Amino acid sequence: MKVDHQLLINANQYLKDQGIKGQIVFRSERSHLVRAGRNQVSLNTSEEAARFFVQIQLGKKQSKGEFVLKNNTTEELIHEIKELQATLPLLPEIDHLGDLLNLAQGDYNDDHSDMDMINMDTSLMVDVYAKAVNKFADKGCEVSGAFSLGTYAYSIINTNVEQPISYRGSDYNVDVVLQLKEHNNKEIKSSQVGASLAEINADAMIEELDRHFLVKTTTHRKSVPIGKYNVIFGPEAVAEILAYTSWVGFSGESYLMQTGMFKKGQHDIGSKVFGDNITITNDPTSKHSLFKRRVGLNGILRPAHTIINKGILKNLIYSSKDICDRYGIVVDNDFATASFELLPGTGPATWTELVQQTKEPTLYINTLHYMNFTNVAKGEFTATSRFGTYLISEGKVQDHLYNIRVNDSFHHVFNNVHWLSSKITSVNLSSTYGMRLASSVSVPEWIEVKDVPITACFAPELSENA
Amino acid sequence: MQKKIADILDSLLAMGASYADIRWHQDDWLQSLSTLKGILHQNSTRKRQGAGIRVLCDGAWGFSSTENMNTLADTAKAALEQARSAAQLRQFKIELSPKETLISEFQTHTLIDPRTVSLEDKMKRLFELDQLLRAPEVDLWSVSFEFYHRSIYYADTEGSKIWRKINDVAASLDCSGIDIDGLRQKRSFEIYQDINKSVGWENIIDQDLNVKASQLVDQLKEILKAPQCEQETCDLVILNSMMALQVHETIGHALELDRILGYELSYAGGSHVNLDDFDHKVFGSKKLNARADGTTPNSPGTTGFDDDGVPGRNVVLIDNGILKNALTSRSTINEANTLAKRKIFDQSGGANRAESYRHMPIERMNNINLDPGNDGELEELISKVKNGLMVESPRSWSIGSNRENFHFACEIGWKIKDGKISHIVRNPTYGGASIPFWNSLKYVGDKSTWRLEQVYNCGKGQPNQIMRLGHGVPVCVFENVQVGSES
Ligand SMILES: [Zn+2]
């Protein structure tokens, strides 16, 4: 849905006429989601939404509101602004309240949306699951998964400027999961993420599932004793580790407030925090970045940032206006539209190479399920393995394993990376179509980490010790 | 609008739908207020409206939502198209289990509606509580209030018409500081509800909150210099907010019928429970009695009717340790009974719920409660423990994809020796396998220990839906639990 920019300009003018500072954001989306379970489509939904987010400030007082308007008219929007205005006298002052952000102005209105996604026939989405059912149902598998796609837009104006700045984009993310009913309900999964319909490659997903299917049905399932192991993480697991590290590590606000994993005096800008082989960027211009948004959801230009360069902390990301105002820091980014990338290394680029070069007993973990921080201050986390846990040695996948629990810290992981794959891949992070805003990270297809603590193995016979 | 909704439902039947319903959120209002370190941090009001239309056609579901009520008829057509397209890959024809046709209403019991309280009074109370969290040892603290109101009209093609006016009130207190090892520690509290009282601004002006704020600060001061929780196997006394998490993660989610059937597999996961397990499986010790109770007064999980239009029911899930029932909806029990080749479920448990008009309802917890036991008050429970640990307030949780195991970290722990609390410990964690853990349930506290905890952040489904619900739970004691302080 397109917003009439004149509506934003009119409401902005009203604020100016009233001598009030303010910012108005319009967001809209149109999304489709197909969900599959037990070899059928269990849910097929579509959604459209259009909302205004208004923030006004007068002196050191501030009020915010979010509105769905009946007819999206200037009068309705100004009516809501007036209601917010009326609350200002009742509010306490915020001493640190700074001026509004300097919005990008000029030629920054980007449209990267795939128009084919707007009024599409959802049969195309259903077909992906039909293909998987055709291939695997008669092998005793149940197919499930979710396929989300859609378009979204945002436009921002504030009283420091005359014109709104806007972005339109589209994205899709799809998962296909197989449960091997005739093989103790073991699970495997394949995922894809992209920006346009043309990129969807169902055959590649089927191929990946087939590869895992072969391992799961031709090797024995074993348990492993708890202890430390060298672990090769698959792309979904690497993405999960990177995303969680970004929340507790790369957020400037958590550093300022000391609520994250980097300590003042120990992990300051310029200090060595990770191993030499770790470089992490937040770069909207990177060729690997899937969603190249030059302007964030907050309307400011997103510069290319190196967060970690060869293990050295170079930059943090500041995006919360309130916290930045408190500490007198300038907002320099937007976390919601960040595009983190862990730069690749020289490790194996294919699964075959990976297996062949692995001589010592090494665990492979495809996905980390239900990751959570156990102690944020130490960067400690826990998660269980899922969708493929293997033991590889002597150049061969020897066994597949029961799911295991990992308890490690992001400090330990990024200081003990043995190698990173030379192949880079994008992993979806927007698993829901809430108010659609596509998000992904780019990571090496695989990384190997030394001495990862495995604290439980969920083999049934060991369950009392788990 | 009600006439327009009735016309659209009729037109859907005429176009070939076998069933349809419309949920119209006439008013969907949320106010969020918070402080951070003595300064106003959040002051925002959200006003939405919209409708969700669910259509059953050719045995498959379609769903479409809009925030533009002018285009409701188009939204209905889209939902019908979605159902037809879903039917292209269908193995099992959805047949809704029967329900009573109702013309009815529900309203939260509220004494002082938060929408009628002035912003000035709200600010005054916010900062009064903020002040109580200040201490030299506390370097970060915050108070937050959330007031939620929804006016919902539901109508379906079977003739039900239901009006609901729902209020929820949440408030939380947080304080944190740096411990002797230079690491951050936190104490927090979220208000719970009393089944004999009401839900409204009265919850916020309750003076118990002042006492709680001071307690949190005192406990934090002790945590900052406390010894680490030692790794050992011992008895574990779990206080209410932690019991709520335990029940939530290892009973509630494990017993959602869509999860058991495999419809959540690709995202949230499956369940270690099979259809064969009902009426047989020993889920826990004989002391374990659990329910999915859609009638618990004053809970955010009690909304009068679920989004199938089924009135809230009180369903026994686990009876003296034996698994009896699940969280069910009209859509899934027929399929489950057919697959099991026996009638496990006789009617919908009234647990089909959607976060908002934007979402298709799925099986969600309403109030997953444990019955109080006969093992006494808190002091008596502690006195029965020779060597143990008592824990409160979730800090982190991670659960296996089939809910078969879990690992929890808590904000605070108390070491128990010879039936008495010895000292506070830092960074307590515990974990286990779900079924052996529930079988180690040794004592269940009496009515005096039972509390209705509110949960505001339960996530499930794709698109993800964040649900509000409740857990009425007593304090419980488990034996031989692996505890520690390692992450
Ligand atoms: Zn939950």
Strand content of chain A: 35-45%
- The structure class of chain B reads alpha+beta
Overall mean pLDDT of chain A? 92
> Whole-number radius of gyration of chain A?
24 Å
How do the helices and strands follow one another from N- to C-terminus of chain A? HEEEHEHEEEHEEHHEEEHEHEEEEHEEEE
Commentary on this structure:
The complex is a heterodimer of chains A (466) and B (487). By secondary structure, chain A is an alpha+beta fold. Chain A has 2 domains: 5-138 and 150-169, PmbA/TldD fold; 221-465, no CATH class. Chain A contains 9 helices and 21 strands. In chain A, the strands form 4 sheets. In chain A, strands 1, 2, 3, 4, 5, 6 and 7 form a 7-stranded mixed β-sheet that branches. Chain A has a 5-stranded mixed beta barrel with strand order 9-14-15-17-21. Chain A has a 4-stranded antiparallel β-sheet with strand order 12-11-10-13, covered by helices on one side. In chain A, a hairpin with a 2-residue loop joins strand 15 and strand 16. Chain A is globular and about 75 Å long. By secondary structure, chain B is α+β, with helices and mostly antiparallel strands. Chain B has 10 helices and 22 strands. In chain B, the strands form 5 sheets. In chain B, strands 1, 2, 3, 4, 5, 6 and 7 form a 7-stranded mixed β-sheet that branches. In chain B, strands 8-15-16-18-22 form a 5-stranded mixed β-barrel. In chain B, strands 11-10-9-14 form a 4-stranded antiparallel β-sheet. In chain B, helix 1 (2-14) packs parallel to helix 2. The longest helix of chain B has 18 residues, at 208-225. Chain B starts with a helix and ends with a strand. The mean pLDDT of chain B is 96. Strand 2 (40-58) of chain A pairs parallel with strand 3 of chain B. Bound molecules: zinc ion. Zinc ion binds at residues 248, 253, 458 of chain B.
